[in-house]
């Protein structure tokens, strides 16, 4: 049996740049090395742990010099938790690299020469900006290197926190998180303490057993409402009701307390029935007097305040005069559709998740909006001649697809429909640029506005206006 191949260590290597997916870059003889948790200007020793045809991956074993661009991370979980990998970069530098990512994608993938791009819109809040977090219970928590090095016996192996990146069965026990309001920390820590004191079983991800599985916390940043959802692996009515009663009494701030039983092999809840224990079955976000009802399964942009700015940019790019038919593709729960409805003749929303379409219809009813229509179906199959004859030829198409971008059939359908404008919203500039390249023979890029929705991460939202040539 052959020996496992040992990869080299490269010493005193300077980190020179940051890649599109957030990892930093070093070069050795023109060979690129991707390295996490470092910033340009750091000089380090790199242990290679993965070799690919055109690049290497590695991790730092020693720092020789720290970059002047470096900032001290504010979270105790930095470097283990995969949530905020750019805490070591000053916020202005984060914005610089996000803007660069958009420019590089449009030029390199989109084939757009010298695109005119507005300066990225910063997030007003760089901490506590998320309105939703999902935590996982585990009876085999991730041990830090310091804990292992002490050699001491570790008694508390229970965790309630986040998955270690690329390790489905390893959970970091989160003591303090800067992503959601402090109420989220209070609820999570109280739940964990209660569960340990009452000897409730935490989930075993490998053996697939244990009572407590997941905890989801959603909060409205405009109304202050709070939703807490417990996922149990199996039903134990007595233990479940005792836990829910305790949390309900301890936190009267919770306006929606819900639970579900999930005995599947995965954590997704979209196919599970969710029961209401106390309060309402939804929370409300507000924008410009519009109310958006958010249920336990609803999609809503996770940075509510910045989402409002994003939607205003979409509306400005569309430049509506009240006479246009607008198609809102990948409409989700109809947030953009309802937001722009009063400035449109009609808005037709399409989404492949039926529950999201139900939310979209309800949001129109709540706000007494009469000029929206919503359809559930696969985007590439929906935009037929029959559909367009029924709903009218769109003057403007707004599209906000998932990270994978649009199916080529959808792009072909948009070209065939031939709207005057396309407003393309994306959380992935690479796939957005790929799609823009396919649209380029017919539509010209006129405006580009990057938006930072997720501070301390490499993710960037981007809005592009295309007009018919």
Low-pLDDT regions: none
| Annotation field: number of helices | 11
Decide which structural class fits the backbone: alpha/beta
Cα distance spanning the termini: 63 Å
Beta strands, count: 22
> Could you say which overall geometry the principal axes of the C-alpha atoms support?
globular
Q: What Rg, in angstroms, do the CA atoms define?
A: 24 Å
Mean pLDDT: 93
Major sheet: arrangement of strands: 9-8-7-10-11-12-13
Helicity level: 25-40%
Strand count, sense and closure of the main sheet?
Answer: 7 strands, mixed
Beta-strand content:
25-35%
Q: Would you give an account of this structure?
A:
The protein has 469 residues and is α/β, with parallel strands linked by helices. It is 26% helix and 29% strand. It has eleven helices and 22 strands. The protein has helices at 91-108, 145-150, 182-197, 237-250, 304-318, 335-340, 354-366, 379-382, 385-391, 408-417, 429-439; strands spanning 9-14, 17-18, 24-28, 31-35, 43-51, 55-65, 132-138, 159-164, 167-173, 212-219, 226-232, 256-261, 275-279, 283-287, 290-294, 325-329, 346-351, 372-376, 396-399, 421-426, 443-451, 461-468. Strands 9-8-7-10-11-12-13 form a seven-stranded mixed beta sheet. A seven-stranded mixed beta sheet has the order 18-17-16-19-20-22-21, sandwiched between helices. Helix 1 packs parallel to helix 11. The longest helix has 18 residues, at 91-108. The radius of gyration is 24 Å and the shape is globular. The model has no long low-confidence stretch (mean pLDDT 93).
